[in-house]
């Protein structure tokens, strides 16, 4: 699917692709944990029948369970780890731009 329009610089085109089934299932897994609701969400995103998507959701949920990792603390309790990245904005005093 693409859409064309004319600008003063010429014709522009935007390509719009629907998500793949794996992407739709991944998005549905992020929204809810219920497998039936995941299948409904993925089917609506893809425009596919619910029966075709349900088997793929079950396969994806089995593989997602195996890849889950839990970090245990000293007493065996679970703990959360938050990773934040801060972007530093340094202003350089000798930054001379030509033609600005």
Q: What does this protein look like?
A:
It is a single chain. This protein is an alpha+beta fold. The protein has a domain at 2-66. The protein is built from three helices and two strands; from the N terminus they run ββααα. It has helices at residues 21-31, 35-46, 50-66, and strands spanning 2-7, 10-15. A two-stranded antiparallel sheet has the order 1-2. β1 (2-7) and β2 form a beta hairpin. α1 packs across α2 and α1 packs across α3. The radius of gyration is 23 Å and the shape is flat. The model has no long low-confidence stretch (mean pLDDT 77).
Count of DSSP H/I helices: 3
Provide the β-strand percentage band: 5-15%
Q: How would you write the strand order of the largest sheet?
A: 1-2
Distance between the termini: 40 Å
For the largest beta-sheet, the strand count, sense and barrel status come to: 2 strands, antiparallel
What is the subunit arrangement here? single chain
Average pLDDT number: 77
Compute the number of strand runs: 2
Q: What low-confidence regions span 5 or more consecutive residues with pLDDT below 50?
A: none
The percent range for helix content is 40-55%
SSE order, one letter for each helix or strand: EEHHH
Alpha-beta classification: alpha+beta
Radius of gyration equals: 23 Å
Overall 3D form: flat
